[in-house]
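agent> Task received from the user: take the single chain below, predict its 3D structure, and emit structure tokens. No templates, no multimer pairing.
agent> Plan: (1) validate residues, (2) run structure prediction, (3) serialize to tokens, (4) report one or two observations.
agent> Step 1 OK, no nonstandard residues flagged.
tool_call: predict_structure(input=
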Amino acid sequence: MDTPLVDDVTLLLLNPETGRPLTDATRLRAVLPGAVLLDLALRERLESEPSRWGGEKVRVRDASPTGDEVLDEALRRLGDRPTAARTAVQRLGGLKLGRAVRDRMVARGLVRHEPGGFLRFARDHPEPGARKALVAEVASALGKGADVTPHAAALVSLLQSVGAIPKVVPELGLSRRQLTDRVQQISDGMAEGEWAGAAVRAAQTAVTAAIVTSTVAATGGAN
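)
tool_result: status=success, residues=223
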């Protein structure tokens, strides 16, 4: 878990040909803070407790520096009071996360940024080798019978939450039903595996809920 999930998800969700995101801005704004929350849970920096109104609350159990500026800022924002998991995702989204992650990835040579201009969107081109390695990790996790690491399982969960798996790994050779079943199997493994805890489960659920909520809000609740 040395590489922050939010960096890896950002890289995977960039179209290597166009430099544009593979998902819409609304989902992207929700999945990036969700990746931060899930990352903190997997690093055992959070603990979970039931909310009296249903669902789960999360609380920082270890606020010591992680060595990553984005994760450390997230710990600071969460503070030491219990917060509804979905609210935590929304709170972390206030970090202007996409730009912060992109800027540091540009500095590390993982993304080449082209500023936008008149009638032209900005473009962020992922470093081919780094992205290819992550795609291979996701594809391996989705392969039948493959051992799945916490990092790979988290990537699958996050990509699935924005419906991006077929775009990221389009040549899996699985039917839609087979892919759904495999993703569910991986998700169940995250919830039940020996490295998973209540905070991980709460973060998983919160990411999906935050994306659904933000999408409904963006569309005005239209059918």
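agent> Step 4: summary for the user.
The first strand starts at residue 46 and ends at 50.
agent> Done.
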